[in-house]
Amino acid sequence: MKHLLFSAAGALVLVACGTDPDSAQEGTGTESTLFAALQSLCGDAFEGEVVSDDPADADWAGEVLTVHVRTCTDNMVRMPLHVGDDRSRTWVVTRLEDGRLRLKHDHRHEDGSEDALTQYGGDTEGEVDDLSARFPADDFSRDLFEREGIPASMDNVWTLAIEDGGDTLVYALDRPGRHFEARIDLTETVSTPPAPWGAEPGTQD
Description:
It is a single chain. The protein is mainly β. The chain contains 4 helices and 11 strands; from the N terminus they run ααβαβββββββαβββ. The protein has helices at about 20-25, 35-40, 60, 140-145, and strands at about 45-50, 65-70, 70, 75-85, 85-95, 100-105, 120-125, 130-135, 155-165, 170-175, 180-185. Strands 1, 2, 3, 4, 5, 6, 7, 8, 9, 10 and 11 form an 11-stranded antiparallel sheet that branches. The longest helix has 9 residues, at about 140-145.
């Protein structure tokens, strides 16, 4: 399975997605911090596309990207990313006690088992108090990339941001000689997609 190593965590309303849809809609994508903004989207799904032009992303460029802000707790947001019919990826954003955010990528096979490349990501370098965050690869990820024979990915920095006055969710990956960017339209919701691989329908995992 080909993997794209990027991705893609104070809330004013704390909800468990799917259990209280009315409260999940109380916020907007223009909350003052990134984590609160993601919380405010809980329960909704949105579509987007790859906007960068690296030839390495040709397979993704022809697919519709669907992000489902599926599960929210007081300190975690889980967002499955569907690339066409591929439901292998979930972005996990966690709010740490010191105000930093952590981004991890949960990659699964169709049978629900973990891929060899999974749980990579990193923490922000400081507290996040606006709508944009950068996540340099952490030691776990760097060791994983070296072990799996992709040392170039050791320099990965992922970005997660809400732009255009709350209208767009941006995911980006950067390292020397590499740029990936996807933009998700937050102005219109779409039908809830199937559960990501490894999660049972109707659960919040």
